[in-house]
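#struct-pred
JK: can someone run the complex with adenosine-5'-triphosphate? inputs below
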Amino acid sequence: MRAWLLAPGDPSRWKVASDVLGSRGLDVVAEASGDCPGVLITRACGRLPGMIAELSDNGRVRVVVVVVGEPVADPWELLGAGASDVLPWSTNGVETMHTVAARIQRWFQVDRLARAGPVTSRMVGRSPAWMSALRWLVEVARYSDASVLVAGESGTGKELAARLIHALDPQRAKGKFVVVDCTTIMESLSGPELFGHERGAFTGAHIARRGAFGEADGGVLFLDEIGELPPSLQPELLRVLQERAFKAIGSQKWERTDFRLVCATNQDLSALERAGRFRRDLLFRLSAATVRLPSLRERIDDIPLLARHFLRQLVADPTPGLDPAVERFLLSRAYPGNVRELRQLVTQIAIRHVGGPLITAGMLPDEERVAELCPAPRTEGLAESVRQALEDGLDLRTLKSTVADLAVSTALTATGGNVIQAAKRLGVTARAVQLRRAGEQTR
Ligand SMILES: Nc1ncnc2c1ncn2[C@@H]1O[C@H](COP(=O)(O)OP(=O)(O)OP(=O)(O)O)[C@@H](O)[C@H]1O
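RT: done, structure tokens with the ligand placed:
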């Protein structure tokens, strides 16, 4: 376990810190490196956010910042710049450095699980956006018992993530994983799916049934589409979470239950809360830890990897490879349905494969092939914007430059800030992207 340690202009603190880290089994190097986590010990100053952004490669490398002297006024600024944690240097630093060492050791454990665990390997991906979500997921699942809110667009793998939390939770893995889709819960019957019911509790209740709260005892209760939970059931859920007990419908008896709650949503729950459609106290309770799964747009590097993974599942040995043209095609598509949509597309392609070592362009579904052969750029919206801009008096030069700025910033957002990928998408050099971005920032 290697970690770098910097304490600019402060050799005595560097020595104390390196002794503690060394005593905890960390191999300390005195030069920053992108290959391992690091520690920066420094006084707070205006240049600190910039330094952190550089050392952490904008959050890709984990860096603990230990601040000497006055506490930093705004630790959020440092976290925003990419620091993984910000701690004050205690009187002699020893205590602080033990905390730092424990944190770094935890990261190594998390990384090992995220990279190579038999459970995590079900979730495919290696892009920075994906790895950072996965690491956080593993950390939350393994080292806490908190309720987790998994947020992300449709098809990004939220249910898979919830199953991963169950499998990685040392306390709950042996218990059940109980799924309830909140869109199917009926308000009028006060949620028999959740509470269960006694025989004869309502018309049609011919036999007693156990509900999800009882079934999930000792395991994980996964509430999918939590934003759709009927308002009348929201205080009831909160009560069960607080009291860890519930009554089945038609029963007078309290039943104890102890489950871990994992919820998923593709909606903005804070917006629902502001609109009065979701209880604030419940929202706080559910989102003790929030894991946001990236869309496929934010992890396009993972597309070939995912496509091969699905092909392996669908076509038995020998699994065909992807012709470069097919790979290019897969990379060029938009996937509003995210990983699920990619999976469906690969399934359609696999059906057309009748043998041979490669998936070729001819195996793409017909409409996909047509789109590939005669790409028809969608320009209706663009034409309207250009008309509007000309009406507003913009000349061609300004218009061209504005469109180029927009294209670069959109491509950068879509690739999670990856200049090389953005350049590939735009068909220009990485330097051109950097220059335009720098131009934008100085304007
Ligand atoms: N990282 C991944 N690796 C492998 N398969 C994945 C990954 N993410 C998603 N999938 C697959 O994509 C499909 C959709 O995943 P899942 O149902 O978990 O998404 P979701 O976000 O819960 O969707 P929805 O919002 O529509 O409920 C599933 O077949 C799942 O196995």
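RT: quick notes.
The pocket of adenosine-5'-triphosphate is lined by residues 123-125, 152, 154-160, 224, 264, 266, 309, 339-340, 343 (CB under 6 Å).
The CA atoms of residues 148 and 289 lie 5 Å apart.
JK: thanks, will look after standup
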